[in-house]
TrEMBL record:
ATP binds at N184, T207, K208, G209, K210, R211, G212, G238, D239, N263. Keywords: ATP-binding, Carbohydrate metabolism, Cytoplasm, Kinase, Magnesium, Metal-binding, Nucleotide-binding, Potassium, Transferase. The gene is rbsK. It comes from Pullulanibacillus pueri. Catalyzes the phosphorylation of ribose at O-5 in a reaction requiring ATP and magnesium. The resulting D-ribose-5-phosphate can then be used either for sythesis of nucleotides, histidine, and tryptophan, or as a component of the pentose phosphate pathway. This is Ribokinase. Belongs to the carbohydrate kinase PfkB family. Ribokinase subfamily. Belongs to the carbohydrate kinase pfkB family.
Length: 291
């Protein structure tokens, strides 16, 4: 039976521009290519878990605009349950403006309907959360909503993974109720400025791009290496990692093995443009790992 993963988070449309070089302040440069891709950290992570083989439900909000329709259709096409995704009248869907330069990206996120995902919405999804093997959270929705979702999952003994992006200081109640926190290196540096460093460190899995990932082994941060691949677009690599990590932990894999698997999925995801386009299937991941 497929593991049940509930993703609570953002659903965006990504507006992606490839450039020869990023513009300086006040400067106009010519773009190379432009793409529209479904995105949002929550939706990306849901798609990653679903493509690998999990039974995934999404909790989130979109606007009643053209992007909202397209984003809902995309989730349905990927086999994700959308009963708890609301379409909000008079609201615009979230968008992310992404500039890609030599495979690396810079991003401006406009939350739109994502900022309307409320604590009441989480309460309505309690039965769904209770039935889950893993709940996956990020910070592109209101922090009070994230805190309540983690508390409900913890109350029902459901494992919680928090991807602390975009970074903000984590409330004590949130740190207490999540099982794993998955920052990138910049987010890790910000987390380590917190007075609760030791409490946080026990739950950390730090993604470090080409240098793999680190996790707390009981005494220190241990490194799990990643894989060298040709990079087309790093957008969404961290989301692919988180979706794969949730899947692997949900099927009972030990943490180090789950990180190895998630590293492979993250590496494969950067070989295509768009946060969701490069996410591999389970068969593709297993074939890659055998090689």
């Amino acid at each position: 039976m497929a593991p049940k993963i509930t993703v609570i988070g953002s659903i965006n449309m990504d507006l992606v521009t490839e450039v020869e070089r990023p513009p300086k302040q006040g400067e106009t440069v010519r773009g190379l290519n432009f793409y529209l891709h479904p995105g949002g950290k929550g939706a990306n992570q849901a798609v990653a878990a679903a493509k690998i083989g999990a039974d995934v439900a999404m909790v989130g909000c979109v606007g009643d605009d053209l992007f909202g329709e397209q984003l809902m259709d995309n989730l349905k096409t990927k086999g994700i349950h959308i009963d708890k995704v609301r379409t909000l009248k008079g609201k615009s869907s979230g968008v992310a403006q992404i500039t890609v330069h030599k495979g690396n990206n810079s991003i401006v996120v406009v939350p739109g309907a994502n900022r309307e995902l409320s604590v009441d919405h989480i309460q309505e999804a309690e039965a769904l959360i209770k039935e889950s093997d893993v709940v996956l959270l990020q910070l592109e929705i209101p922090i009070e909503t994230v805190v309540r979702a983690a508390a409900l999952a913890h109350q029902h003994n459901v494992k919680v993974i928090l991807n602390p992006a975009p970074f903000q200081r984590l409330p004590e109640a949130l740190v207490e109720t999540v099982d794993y926190i998955t920052p990138n290196e910049l987010e890790y540096d910000n987390l380590m400025k917190d007075a609760r460093t030791k409490e946080l460190a026990r739950k950390l899995i730090v993604t470090k791009g080409k240098r793999g990932a680190q996790y707390f082994d009981g005494e220190k941060l241990a490194t799990v290496p990643t894989y060298n691949v040709e990079v087309a677009d790093t957008t969404g690599a961290g989301d692919a990692f988180n979706g794969a990590l949730a899947y692997s932990l949900a099927i009972g894999e030990p943490l180090e093995s789950a990180i190895h698997f998630a590293n492979a999925v993250g590496a494969l995801s950067v070989k295509a443009h768009g946060a969701q386009n490069g996410i591999p299937t389970l068969e593709e991941v297993n074939r890659f790992l055998r090689r």
